[in-house]
Amino acid sequence: MAVATEKTTIVATKHPQETPYQLDPEHTLKASRALLQHIQTETKRIQQASSKKSLLNASTSDSDDDVTADAEAPIWLTLTTKQHIVDKNRLKPSKIHVPHSLNTSPDLRICLITTDPQRAVKNVVADPAFPEPLKSRIHRVIGLTKLKARYKTYEQLRELHSEHDVFLADDRIITRLPQTLGKVFYKGTTKRPIPIMIADTRKEKTEKSKKSKTDGASAPISPASLAKEIEKALDSVPVSLRPGTLVAVRVGLAAFKPEQLVENITTVVSRLIEKHVVKGWKNVRGVHIKGEQSFAVPLWLADDLWADSGDVLEAPEENGKLEEAEEQDEHGSKRKRNPATSKGPQAGSRKRARVDDGKNGKSTLDHEVAQERKRKLASQKAKVFGDTL
């Protein structure tokens, strides 16, 4: 019996110690279940309200479209920090692989933006070795030069933006696209081009040694490698960083189950803090999830409002003495006031009369003691805050 007790004690000591810098799985599951249930309830309420207003039976197809659109409504994760995440806008988004992809629809429309010439990439996509299910979802392959020539106006860019669901771009030209696509794509973060590797790195190094200056000189990778890169991008969520203390990432859809949403949230939070947040969890202020038209549900909130203890300044000794003097002063006011003026607390004739009359059993001696304390307090304030008082 003694041996069994000893083994039980040893196993108990091997459990990891609890730390406040982590998500609570049970709380995350409850919050995810509550948010999804709220979104479903609101969707049903809106559909019932719209069906009562509709007078034609032919509108049933429109309601079916609304159901599918609501099922694809995104769930956002917002992470706020105590200090700025980045100092400048990063137009090249990073990717975080999630267990449950947000792009599983067979009707997904993909636009692939490549370097010149675009014909080399088109040949790779048209190759028989390229997976057919993925090929059917790639609706357009366009080079950078033709993109600039065909889509010049704001209306043309909006049309391109609405025709496709996901935009993938060669990582060699991803930093040139903001100037070409403009605020139609980069005002929000939903359809910003996601970088993928298209060029064969081995051939690219060989051609760089030959001092080739053209963008399309490096040959694209094999059909299987390109398909793997595209699938990897579709199974990930993009993270776009901007100056500030907030970052928002899509972590799920309204059609997800709570368990699926929890797995994506846990993965995104851990990778986001590890990869992008300086000082890790100590710099995180709060983690929330929300729908498109719902309130933010808190998952984790920090107890401290500072990242380091060095950011908190200790009060000087004179300030401590000043606070003690204010606490001991029963008749004076704690408000800062210039003694030379007649404005502020205990300045009016009515208030002076109350003190002089000795209301509430206060004697004249107590009043003189209070006045002396007020003078000492004023001198201490003058030393601490300067001549402004």
Automatic annotation (TrEMBL):
Annotated SUPFAM superfamilies: Ribosomal protein L1 (SSF56808)
Name of this protein: Proteasome-interacting protein cic1
Biased composition (Polar residues): 46-57
Gene name of the encoded protein: CIC1
Stretches the record annotates as Disordered: 42-67, 317-389
Biased composition (Basic and acidic residues): 354-372
Keyword set, alphabetical order: Proteasome
GO cellular component, one term: proteasome complex
